[in-house]
Amino acid sequence: MRQLFKYLFFPFFLIHSVLCIAQVSNGYFLKSKAGDKYFVALGYGQGTAHWNSLFEKTEFYDKDGSVINKGDFHFGANSPTKNYDICVLAPIRHVRLGLGIDFEFHYLSQLRVYTKTGTDYLLFDESMRFDKIFIAAEVPFKYESRKKYSLSWNMRCGWFGYTNVKRFNFIGDKPFPIALLFNTGLTADYEFYPHVYLFASPHMEYKIYDNSRTEAPVQIVHKIYSAAVIVGVRVDLGKLTN
């Protein structure tokens, strides 16, 4: 029950905060424009990610705790991803700004290990979840359009944590590493019911994890490049409450 409360509380906090900020920024007595939409969006996504990772001055373990490598270890990997996403957006001028959370699942089955003599492949079995918190911005190409469909450019930046990692030392132990994400893409939506929209959002994302400032001289660096498409439903709460 405590876990359920934690996951439900944060989305409701996002909705309340963004709507309040937008109301103050736009002013209660300003005439609303056609593009003034207060979106709450729920989405599901799938994609793929490429890892470029480096371990220095530490040991790399298998899932049973045995040492695979001592010292420096550089590898690349590909992993399928799936996302569960919630985002809240509100209009400020001609831009929609907001906050969101995203749960991103990865599964690694094979590593491409880079050595001085070339490359080798290592069978691997690791899954994990990244818990992402981000600031979002959406810029509609035609803000005041009254058509049922629209196209926007969106950007996200934020921080992520991780859970469900089986291997000791795969990501690091100490708190407060560098763990940042940057995301850009497009969002297309269609109003299939009054104030309710279907949307699709293809995007690309870059994540950087670096623990060197908290666990020196050990250094674990993960650079993760991903591409995915999130689809879902979003509701214009501003119109529903009028």
Structural write-up:
The protein has 242 residues and is mainly β. Helices cover 14% and strands 65% of the residues. It is built from three helices and eight strands; from the N terminus they run αβββββββαβα. The protein has helices spanning 2-26, 212-215, 237-241, and strands spanning 39-61, 67-92, 95-115, 118-140, 149-163, 178-193, 196-210, 219-236. It has an eight-stranded antiparallel beta barrel with strand order 1-2-3-4-5-6-7-8.
Quick structural gist:
By secondary structure, the chain is mainly beta. It is built from three helices and eight strands; from the N terminus they run H-E-E-E-E-E-E-E-H-E-H. Helices cover 14% and strands 65% of the residues.
- Rounded to an integer, what's the Rg over CA atoms? 21 Å
Number of helices: 3
The secondary-structure class comes to: mainly beta
Q: What is the helix/strand order?
A: HEEEEEEEHEH
End-to-end C-alpha gap: 34 Å
SSE layout:
Layout: H1 2-26, E1 39-61, E2 67-92, E3 95-115, E4 118-140, E5 149-163, E6 178-193, E7 196-210, H2 212-215, E8 219-236, H3 237-241
Antiparallel strand pairs: 1-2, 1-8, 2-3, 3-4, 4-5, 5-6, 6-7, 7-8
Can you give keywords for this protein?
14% helix; eight-stranded antiparallel beta barrel; disordered N terminus; 242 residues; 3 helices
